Amino acid sequence: MGSKQKLAVSIVVGLAVLAGAYSLSIHWLRHQSMPSTLTIDVTAASQGERSGPRTSEGERLLLDGDGDRHSLKAEGILAYRLGSFVEAERLFSESFTQNEPDPETLIYFNNALVSQQAEFVTIAVVVSFNGETAIHTSKEILRGVAQAQREFIKTGNALKVVIGDDQLDPQIAQQLALSFAENPAILGVIGHPDSDMSLAAGDVYQQVGLVMMSATSTAISLTGIGDFIFRTIPNDLIAAQTMATYVSDELKSRKIAVFYNSQSDYSRSLYQSFLDALGPQGTVVITADMDGQAPSFDLAQFMGRMEAEGAEAIALLTNASKLSEVLEIIQINQRRLPIIAGDALYNLKILEAGAVNAEGLVVAIPWHILVNPSAIFPVSARELWQGDVSWRTALSYDATRALSKALQETPTYDRQSLQNILADPNFSATGAINKINFSPSGDRNQSILMVRVVQGNRYGLDYQFVPF
Questions:
Q1: Of 28, 24, 95, 27, nearest in space to 58 by CA
Q2: Which one in 116, 130, 379, 390 has a CA-CA gap of 20 to 30 Å to 7?
Q3: Residue (of 346, 342, 333, 292) closest to 315 by Cα position
Q4: Pair (86, 26) in one structural domain
Q5: Quick one: 282 and 349 in the same domain?
Q6: Is the same domain home to 294 and 174?
Q7: What is the share, in percent, of the chain residues with pLDDT greater than 70?
């Protein structure tokens, strides 16, 4: 984050603190009983859903793409907006069971149940509904949150989840963080999906004392923001070391072409960590910065130079916004050189569009469902979502589990108490992968595994990712 951006954050947060007449003591919300039935005007349900702030607990549609907007889901949204939580519960339930399982719908159903309780606690989750790849990633994250929320409610607890959309825009990410900070009901936030957005909003969360728990942001610089920042995913140091070891020990490559995006905090962090890890091994690196602001970069020309200089492998360390360029690299390479990639490229587009040319590609990720497919989480997730789930779902599930467990242990329902519990060296929660606990830096000690693209139809395609 640049100095001007940090100054803007400080000014905004400072104004919020001066104006903020809110207490962070106990945040139990109470509701009066509402009518159990409601006559629905489905036209009204589809109007105004994009107006106002990009947040919703059930009163607004954030995720498009579930078919006809004049649907049971739209009717449930209108019922929720009008305070008829019993009717909203029924409509969201019918929508979830009659259509392809939709995580936004399940969260809204859970919230409708919780809103009928006299007392509940509230957290938020931030996703990015901006572009096909970001929407797909956001659905993966929401699945984990919805599943953990559902399980927590079934054990007799009342947890509401507010969904926010940062639209992959740093300024909006900061504004969203500030709006959560100004809402005393919100005790913690899961997010943001992208390292750049997490870094942009992280200063806000730290300055106002609101826990941010990231499940997918790996940039090393996130660790240094402060003691209100936690994450359930290992940072780039661990991923980079695992990848460097694979390049040296398995591929035995002494010259590697590395693609990265200097305008992405995630890509820059993984790139530098990878170079540092390769250093002692004497591997020669040929670097290509795929920065979109560098129009002189010619991919085909660089691929020719890479081959002429004797590159023995390719490392794709870019962020997901460069997916089209990544697919072009895979196409040009034609499986001639082995390819290794960071977790941002764990994407079905690699399998679908890359197809036969992607076969053999290796991706470093923190979890895969096939490592222990009979464990409790994979079995329940597959049943709930009618198919396999990704590492993003598992780590988001863990983030929700960690916040839920910490909320159970807080002596008072306030933000500082929540942070104290999470920072306690003895804190532990059961997650999808293993026990969840945090180092003094707020990071999680978790290993990285490698998956390879092979033939198979696990995802309804001709290729699949499998661990090895």
A1: 95
A2: 130
A3: 342
A4: yes
A5: yes
A6: no
A7: 86
* Distance, CA of 4 to chain centre: 27
Residue-by-residue DSSP string for 397-458: HHHHHHHHHHHHH-SSSSHHHHHHHHHSTT--EE-SSSEE---TTS------EEEEEEE--T
Range in 34-48, 352-366, 382-396 with the lowest mean pLDDT: 34-48
CATH code, domain carrying 242: 3.40.50.2300
For residue 361, being part of any structural domain is answered with yes
Q: Please give the pLDDT value at position 40.
A: 37
Rounded CA separation 257/289 (Å): 11
Beta-bridged to residue 55, according to DSSP, are 164
Burial annotation 120-148 (CB, 10 A radius, 16+ → b, else e) = bbbbbbbbbbbeebbbebbbbbbbbbbbb
| Residue 187 three-state SS | strand
Residue 374 in domain = no
Is residue 296 domain-shared with residue 402, that is, in the same domain? no
| 9-12 own/partner pairs: CB under 8 Å, 24+ apart | 9/174, 9/200, 9/203, 9/204, 9/207, 10/203, 10/207, 12/174, 12/178, 12/204
Angle between helices 391-409 and 415-423 (to 10 degrees): 110
Mean of the per-residue pLDDT values of the chain: 88
Question: How far from 465 is each of 60, 203, 346, 367, 388, CA to CA, in Å?
Answer: 35, 36, 8, 12, 11
Q: Specify whether the CB–CB gap between 388 and 380 falls below 8 A.
A: no
Domain match, 330 and 356 both: yes
- Arithmetic mean of pLDDT, 75-94: 97
Whose structure tokens read 């090895």? 468
The pTM for the full model equals 0.88
For residue 378, being part of any structural domain is answered with no
According to DSSP H, which parts of 219-311 are helical? 236-245, 265-278, 299-308
Residues 246, 292 within the same domain: yes
Rounded Cα distance, 369 and 18, in Å: 47
* Cβ–Cβ under 8 Å, residues 423 and 406: no
Which residues make beta-bridge pairs with 370?
A: none
Is residue 354 domain-shared with residue 400, that is, in the same domain? no
- Looking at the domain assignment, is residue 383 inside a domain? no
Looking from the CA of 240 toward its CB, the CA atoms found within 13 Å total 23
Range of the domain at 89: 3-234+388-436
CA–CA separation, 245 and 224 (whole Å): 26
- C-beta separation of 14 from 204 below 8 A: no
The b-or-e profile of 76-88 (16+ CB within 10 A means b, else e) is bbbbbbbbbbbbb
The domain total for the chain is: 2
Q: How many residues does the chain have?
A: 468
